[in-house]
Amino acid sequence: MTDQPDFLRALAGETLARPPVWFMRQAGRHLPEYRELRAKAPDFVDFCLNPTMAAEATLQPMRRYPFDASIVFADILLVPKALGQAVWFEAGEGPRLGVLPDLSAMRDLAPSAGEALKAVGETLSIVRAELEPSRALIGFCGAPWTVATYMLDGMARTIGKGERAAARAYAYADPEGVDALLGVLVEASAWYLKMQAENGAQALQIFESWAEGLPDDLFERLVVNPHQMLIARLRELGVDVPLIGFPRGSAALLGDYAARCAVQAVGLDTACPLAVGQAVQKRKTIQGALDPMLLRTGGAPLDRRIDELRAAWGDGPWIFNLGHGILPDTPIAHVEQALARIGA
């Protein structure tokens, strides 16, 4: 086991003298080299699906920082594109999706999601060939509910402005339709992640960015059940790499998620109390939960919080990470400060 990257050792449940480190959104707008690269591709979706450019974006932070793991540069909304829904990004506004395709048409396309997004696999292959063996490579997908919230956005304009609350309203108003969409996304995501594992991803993260605010019955239906289905489907398809579940904002429901979902690690967001992290750590490896705002602030408060996290979680399996992604205006010096403080 000792010849494995430290990141994979931690996922396997080992407690290491220094936790392995990577940061969500470590590739991206806080890096000047990324901004220069991004300027060469006006369309963001095209940029994600250009293996040469996406591989360069993935590798940029690995050249600059001593991270233990790299995560492929892609986007959670590539899966809707593979299912036939128009996806684009408005400058200064974020993602926009077109009309939701017919459910039966999406169901037919779901098994081919990996093939439709094979450019991401090419990116992974390029990165794996250039990355040192001691540094792990992570693939990912958006969780079914999170992706569904965006896919329902166009329909939700009659309710509001396409906010997560509007998608949640659909979960109540049309439970059969929303559950059917989640089933399609489970299948498509499983094939997409299988393709990533076959092209060099050594671990896979499921980003449930919109678990926040769900009552326990909806959390069960929209988060726990689809995650269980996705994990089971991945194993049926022969995918045996470790999995990280990140139900951001799940708060008091996090322990239930950790107990019932067969992931190897659980991501913790910025609002996760130290005691909750310790309780989850008794079952699984934990990952997180440094506040990206504190990383942006830097200085003595950053050092102090890192010391608190290490004191609380350092005696168990733990991957040092943020509770959400790096903010675009985070100084590079503050990332370096955090890495030095944790001993990377």
Secondary structure elements and pairings:
Elements: H1 6-11, H2 32-38, H3 44-48, H4 51-64, E1 69-71, H5 78-82, E2 87-90, E3 94-97, H6 103-109, H7 113-116, H8 118-130, E4 136-142, H9 144-151, H10 153-156, H11 164-173, H12 175-198, E5 203-208, H13 216-236, E6 243-247, H14 254-260, E7 265-267, H15 274-281, E8 285-287, H16 292-297, H17 299-313, E9 318-319, H18 332-342
Parallel strand pairs: 1-4, 4-5, 5-6, 6-7, 7-8, 8-9
Antiparallel strand pairs: 2-3
Task: Give a brief rundown of this model.
The chain is an alpha/beta fold and 344 residues long.
Overview of the structural elements:
This protein is of the alpha/beta class and about 350 residues long. It has a single domain, classed as TIM Barrel (Alpha-Beta Barrel). It contains 18 helices and 9 strands. Strands 1-4-5-6-7-8-9 form a 7-stranded parallel beta sheet. β7, α15 and β8 form a beta-alpha-beta unit. α4 packs parallel to α8. It is globular. About 0% of the residues have low confidence.
- What fraction of residues sit in β-strands? 5-15%
| Approximate helicity band | 40-55%
Query: Structural class of the helix and strand makeup?
Result: alpha/beta
CATH topology: TIM Barrel
How is the main sheet built? Answer: 7 strands, parallel
The mean pLDDT is 94
Order of helices and strands: HHHHEHEEHHHEHHHHEHEHEHEHHEH
Radius of gyration: 19 Å
Give the name of the CATH architecture: Alpha-Beta Barrel
Strand order of the largest sheet: 1-4-5-6-7-8-9
Q: End-to-end span in angstroms?
A: 20 Å
- As an assembly, this protein is single chain
